[in-house]
Design a protein that fits this description.
Structural class: alpha/beta
Largest sheet: 4 strands, parallel
Helix content: 40-55%
Number of strands: 4
Radius of gyration: 18 Å
Number of domains: 1
Length: 247
């Protein structure tokens, strides 16, 4: 008996053909390779996006594509370890993958974004793919700000700004506790320059550790609650999108 395709990276081509033939969706996680303080790995954004994507795909009986593990992380390039793609490169990669998804016969593409800097390239790529006939929906951890306010104990460093803090640390403890070193977790609440958000800035110019907030109160239970909330809201929105396109 053939398995139902769910993880593209570990599935043979006949099973991918079966999944596409039954009208499955493809789910693509997009993360980044950038600093996340001293206690979290460089792959944090990719690990989180992939973990969320797998749960969404399981609920939809969709196929999880291999993630895009690099993103537009220019503003963290002053920290060692950050490897960044230009917005144009990331947009082109998403378009090429999307064209492959359409060529393989999948019903549509769900993009789960784990890194703020990817939003514009993803949006522009989605426009191109939709114009070419592939239904695309892209999500950025919907309801995260409300969930964080309800679940977490620490204050965010800025409104809707979560980086190497309690939120991301808790989610990593739920998904990848093997790569989290809580003995190195330390808070930092930097003073944001008055022109933050209206000019290009390197985060290291006003942030010494790469942490924005306080990761110390993070627990796996909080992370699980955050993920469950994100997945539930994502599935609701995907359902609305599917209804619009009769997928």
């Amino acid at each position: 008996m053939h398995k139902i395709a769910s993880d593209f990276a570990h599935t043979a081509w006949p099973d991918i053909a079966e999944a596409a033939g039954r009208g499955a969706l493809a789910v693509l996680a997009i993360g980044a390779c950038e600093q996340h303080g001293a206690h979290l790995p460089l792959t944090t954004d990719t690990d989180l996006a992939l973990g969320v994507s797998r749960r969404i795909a399981a609920a939809l009986e969709a196929v999880v594509l291999p993630p895009i593990a690099y993103g537009d992380a220019w503003n963290n390039e002053a920290f060692p370890g950050t490897l960044s793609l230009s917005p144009d490169t990331l947009r082109a990669v998403i378009i090429d993958i999307g064209r492959g998804v359409r060529r393989n016969g999948f019903a549509g593409l769900v993009i789960i974004n784990g890194h703020f800097g990817n939003r514009e390239p993803i949006g522009l790529a989605a426009r191109t793919l939709v114009a070419e006939g592939l239904p695309v929906v892209h999500l950025d951890y919907p309801h995260l700000e409300k969930l964080a306010g309800d679940i977490c104990d620490s204050e965010p460093a800025g409104p809707g700004f979560y980086h190497a803090d309690e939120v991301e640390t808790a989610m990593m403890l739920a998904l990848r506790p093997d790569v989290v070193d809580m003995s190195r977790a330390a808070p930092e609440y930097p003073a944001f320059p008055p022109t933050f958000g209206i000019e290009p800035l390197q985060l290291r110019d006003f942030n010494a550790t790469g942490v924005f907030g306080d990761p110390r109160p993070a627990t796996a239970a909080k992370g699980e609650a955050l993920i469950e909330g994100i997945v539930a809201e994502s599935l609701r929105l995907i359902g609305l999108w599917q209804a619009r396109h009769a997928i």
